[in-house]
Amino acid sequence: MPVLILFASIEGQTRKIAQFIEETVSGAGYEATIVDVSDKMADVTFDGFDTVILAAPVHERRHPPNFEVLLTASRADLEARRTLMISVSLGAAFPKLMGEAQEYLDEMKMRTGLKPNAEALVAGAVRPSSYGYYETEVLRHAILRHQTIDPRTQEREFTDWDALGEVVTNFLSADK
Length: 176
Fold this sequence. Notes:
Radius of gyration: 16 Å
Largest sheet: 5 strands, parallel
Strand content: 15-25%
Oligomer: single chain
């Protein structure tokens, strides 16, 4: 069974997550096709796919605008297929912020009309070289306020790869 993986990435962690998903899908015996929709010239077709996995990061409470536009424009195609939506955020790394991370996903679903069959909140990463002053201060004082990591100098990956693999495997096996 072919599986379409559509993702958008800003700092690179969601790209890494999408590549991991591709490996997991292939390792489970499915044919994986991966498309970076951050590339506005990307050719997205749903023909031949019954299963779609979507992944996008959250920045400043929103998923990338081009990703949300794609979801809105492709609503009928997505509703005709089994979909798994993976929302990547730092909030998903911390139990106290999981509610906020879910709000980001819920707000995106309201804006786009997306109704995935399954969804997952996945923790992202801190990449100091990707942030300006404003982003760094928001991370320091809002998201990482109770953590020992300094987003000005410390790179850190929070993604739980085993949990992500389990989410993808469970989603795929539910279709059998």
